[in-house]
UniProtKB/TrEMBL annotation:
Protein name: Methionine--tRNA ligase, cytoplasmic
Homology family: Belongs to the class-I aminoacyl-tRNA synthetase family.
MF-aspect GO terms: ATP binding; methionine-tRNA ligase activity
GO biological process, one term: methionyl-tRNA aminoacylation
Domain WHEP-TRS: 841-897
Any Pfam family matching the protein: tRNA-synt_1g
Length: 907
């Protein structure tokens, strides 16, 4: 103790009279921002690792409260191994020959452990050498001399004394509160109406200072005219999502695995004012297209045109904000693909080889990968494709399949024949282009599963890979000897990102081949894990083999698989819920976006569940988020004439702001690392803080007494500021809901901030308030579950039988909002097997549908604002489902305010 007081936690950065920073990550971040040094994702990743793994493990270990049951030693060892791996050849964590930010952060965290000469340090000689060398550097030695930090258990205690809310991972959760309870002073942990607010005085002081500061301008750029090109002197973001095959309708697993995940990150970047280009499109070449064309009796081009339009419609409905959504069947694709091929050929990275290829005797044709199915040689899955097994994700050669069968005719009369093909010489590329070295460094920013898959490929040893096929539908091989062949789709498809950019702008090389040191491009790729081998090895190897300075992936973001209930989604077999299905449910797109991100399979497989879908909507959206937004704005509307009142902040209010600020920081850290699922949960945490704040302050009682009027205004005013913040944070995830909140707040743009601020000035007039969400009822969900059971073929068969049956409705309500008229509305008037519908009610609804359909068409013709169109489309869908319910056809959109016909009123 010092003069009878508790020894202060050191080091500490004194910013001003009221603001003191004690957390190393916070200190480094503040100093870098003050010095205008940009925080890169790698450093943010290290900070995240330090905060969530290394620091908790060290604190738990030193506390002597952890035991074998908690796995403390195991967790600490794993964390220290990770740190040792990050030490560069010069002996430091930075990429330079001297210690820098990275070293300062980790050194401060490990000091209490390594300075105590604990036995665990002897297991890590490389780490101990780094620690000793760092201690000898002048700046570090001076800090030690000035601070004289404690080590061991006493060093851990000082951290908890100052920061009782230090993040403690689950294995040492018991220690966190047990240790704090005996050491923390009341001013560091105060009780507010029965709720413990776990924020430190330093956090409260920072919240107070930020609240009194200047409100930043919105970083959102207006409608951009012209082309988006990379800008010198700043970081530019190139974002692509794996190209969906054009051979079918995408299911929910496809959507969250690529386009939706990329869209959330792209929108986040835009809200922050970053210069980004988000490109994707349909993958239209290859055997999948030819197979689908054979099934539907169309030409490959007709299939591509049909499904490209369908994909575009679905993604537009999901509010996916592409800067350009293209396709691979373009002249730019042919030119760029053939140019890359010829450069590889000239650089001697291509080889001609004879291969055994499957040949269907009844069809008299060679069978490319997608024309073959059989038993996987690795896992025994009976329906593996000729190029990859959907179950174990192993890449296969069609000739390795057991019991192969032709997908065209179904025959097992399949033999092998010789065929001349072109191979990409991956072993030569690995040696000459130093692929392993590139992968080791590039994959630092990749998701763990992407890193594991890519490194497993390298570990097994790269082999020559065939990049041509005996097909007609594809990019022609530009060699006379192989003019009857086309590129293999997985050599050709990733080039689509480049050709689509070329379709978007003639200056495409500024994004893709840019050797300027002044232009920094961060390339993000989003995909499911089955696409990783092609994007992590084949595509980069092909680009490096051209000897040109291509933009290569820095952030490969891969998801695991999203399953459907107790089984698997399957586009080829029509199992699960598909994009066209969700458009027919009448449930708004943002609800689907929310749930898909909520269950996004980031670290392991997850599943779409109808019950959970209903539960999350009703609990997280309706009762938590929607409840807070609605009650906050309704109070302003009811008691303050829809105007933001004057706010007079108390210490308790600043503590709430500090709590919210903590969640904002975590939200930012998670989104920078593309951990979208966890970032979404931070938003819900903030709305929960808001609900607790309202519940504890009880503005409904404060408004009854004139003396409490000012306090009531403050509570409602703070609530409105939290609503504004939630609107901004929601924008990447639920853009439609964010737009609605902006309308209710009467503001035009979100403002991104690192802190909760008084965004709305006193006297600001809000708009009309209405509920954001509707309750989903169990009977509705059960009907949807039943409707989408089985596969698409079985559903069509059931629907066909229903249409033929005289006891069933003769038609299905159309969901094409652009082609509604009185005729298709009247088709729904026939009744189901129950009681006959009231003709007057049917006629009334038909008239309303016809009128609403005309309104939607007029708005589209006039190219009205998307928000207005979406609102009217939703109204149209609700009317249709009301008619469907009346006629016994469809599941209605639930409206908690409406009553079904025949429902007994409350007595």
């Amino acid at each position: 103790t010092l003069e009878g007081k508790q020894r202060p936690r050191l080091p500490i950065l004194v910013v001003d009279e009221v603001t003191r920073l004690f957390d190393t990550n916070a200190i480094v971040t503040y100093l870098m921002e003050t010095g205008k040094v940009q925080l890169d994702p790698k450093l943010l990743g290290l900070m995240n690792f330090d905060a969530h793994r290394l620091s908790p493990a060290i604190l738990a270990y030193l506390s002597e409260k952890g035991d074998a049951d908690f796995g403390v030693t195991k967790e600490l060892t794993a964390a220290l191994i990770e740190i040792e791996k990050k030490i560069n050849p010069y002996g430091f964590l930075s990429e330079e020959r001297i210690p820098k930010y990275e070293d300062a952060i980790i050194w401060s965290t490990v000091y209490p452990l390594l300075a105590s000469n604990d036995k665990v340090g002897s297991k890590f000689p490389k780490l101990m050498e780094w620690f000793s060398n760092t201690c000898r550097y002048a700046a570090f030695a001076e800090a030690l001399a000035a601070i004289k930090p404690l080590s061991g258990k006493e060093g851990a205690k000082t951290i908890f004394i100052c920061n009782p809310a230090a993040v403690i991972s689950t294995f040492c959760e018991r220690f966190a509160r047990a240790e704090v309870s005996s050491t923390v002073k009341t001013e560091d942990m105060e009780e507010q109406s029965g709720t413990v607010v776990n924020v430190s005085n330093e956090e409260v002081a920072a919240a107070r200072q930020a609240w009194k500061g200047q409100i930043p301008h919105s970083a959102v750029k207006g409608k951009r005219s012209g082309q988006i090109l990379p800008l010198a002197g700043q970081r530019n973001y190139l974002i692509t999502s794996a190209l969906p095959y054009v051979n079918n309708v995408p299911h929910l697993g496809n959507i969250i695995g690529c386009v939706l995940s990329a869209d959330v990150f792209a929108r986040y970047c835009r809200v922050r004012g970053r210069n980004i280009l988000y490109v994707s499109g349909t993958d239209e070449y290859g055997t999948a297209t030819e197979t689908k064309a054979l099934e539907e009796g169309l030409t490959p081009q007709q299939i591509c045109d049909k499904y490209h339009a369908l994909h575009s419609e679905i993604y537009k409905w999901f509010d996916i904000g592409f800067d350009y959504f293209g396709r691979t069947t373009t002249k730019e694709q042919t030119q760029i693909g053939q140019d890359i091929f010829m450069r590889l050929y000239q650089n001697e990275y291509l080889k001609e080889m004879t291969v055994l290829q499957l040949f269907c005797e009844p069809c008299k044709r060679f069978l490319s990968d997608r024309f073959v199915e059989g038993t996987c040689p690795s896992c025994g899955y009976e329906d593996a494709r000729g190029d990859q097994c959907d179950k174990c994700s192993r890449l296969t050669n069609s000739t390795d399949l057991k019991n192969p069968r032709c997908k065209v005719c179904g025959s097992a009369q399949v033999i092998t024949k010789n065929s001349e093909q072109v191979f990409l010489d991956l072993p030569a590329l690995e040696q000459k282009e130093r692929l392993a070295e590139w992968l080791e460094k590039a994959s630092e920013q990749w998701t763990p599963n992407a890193r594991h898959i890519a490194k497993s490929w390298m570990k097994e040893g790269l082999k020559e890979r065939c990049i041509t096929r005996d097909l007609k539908w594809g990019t022609p091989v530009p060699l006379d000897k192989f003019k009857e062949k086309v590129f293999y789709v997985w050599f050709d498809a990733p080039i689509g990102y480049i050709s689509m950019t070329a379709n978007y702008t003639s200056n495409w090389k500024q994004w893709w081949i840019n050797s300027s040191k002044d232009v920094e491009i961060e390339y993000y790729q989003f995909m499911a894990k089955d696409n990783v081998p092609f994007h992590s090895i084949l595509f980069p190897a092909s680009l490096k083999g051209t000897k040109e300075p291509w933009t290569l992936v820095r952030h490969l973001i891969a998801t695991e698989y999203l399953n459907y209930e107790d089984g698997k989604f399957s586009k080829s077999r029509g199992v699960g819920v598909f994009g066209t299905d969700v458009m027919e449910t009448g449930i708004p797109a943002d609800i689907w976006r929310f749930y898909l991100i909520y269950v996004r399979p980031e670290s392991q497989d997850s599943a779409f569940s109808w019950d959970d879908f209903m539960t999350k909507n009703n609990s997280e959206l309706l009762n938590n988020l929607g409840n807070f937004v609605n009650r906050s704005l309704t109070f302003l509307e009811k008691f303050f004439h829809s105007e933001v009142p004057t706010i007079v902040m108390s210490e308790d209010d600043y503590r709430v702001v500090a709590e919210v600020n903590r969640e904002i920081v975590e939200y930012i850290n998670l989104l920078e690392l593309c951990k979208l699922r966890d970032a979404l949960r931070q938003i819900l945490a903030i709305s929960k803080i808001g609900n607790v704040y309202f519940q504890s302050q009880k503005p409904w009682t404060l408004t009854k007494n004139a003396a409490d009027r000012q306090r009531c205004g403050t509570v409602c005013g703070v609530g409105a500021q939290i609503v504004f913040l939630l609107m901004t944070l929601l924008d990447p995830f639920m853009p439609g809901v964010a737009r609605t909140i902006r309308e209710q707040l009467n503001v035009s743009k979100p403002i991104f901030s690192l802190s909760l601020l008084p965004f709305l000035s006193p006297g600001h007039k809000i708009g009309k308030v209405s509920p954001l969400f509707q309750k989903l009822e169990l009977d509705m969900i059960e009907k949807l579950r039943k409707k989408y059971a089985g596969n698409q073929a079985e559903r069509k068969e059931k629907e066909a039988k229903k249409l033929k049956s005289p006891s069933k409705s003769s038609s299905v309500v159309s969901t094409d909002s652009g082609n509604n008229n009185a005729n298709n509305a009247s088709d729904t008037a026939s009744t189901g097997g129950g009681a006959a519908a009231d003709p007057a009610e049917v006629a009334k609804l038909e008239a309303e549908i016809a009128k609403q359909g005309n309104l939607v068409r007029d708005l589209k013709t006039k190219k009205a604002d998307k928000t207005e169109i979406d609102k009217e489309v939703q109204a149209l869908l609700k009317l249709k489902f009301q008619l469907g319910l009346l006629s016994g056809n469809e599941t209605p959109v639930n409206d908690s305010k409406s009553k079904k016909k025949g429902t007994n009123k409350k007595k």
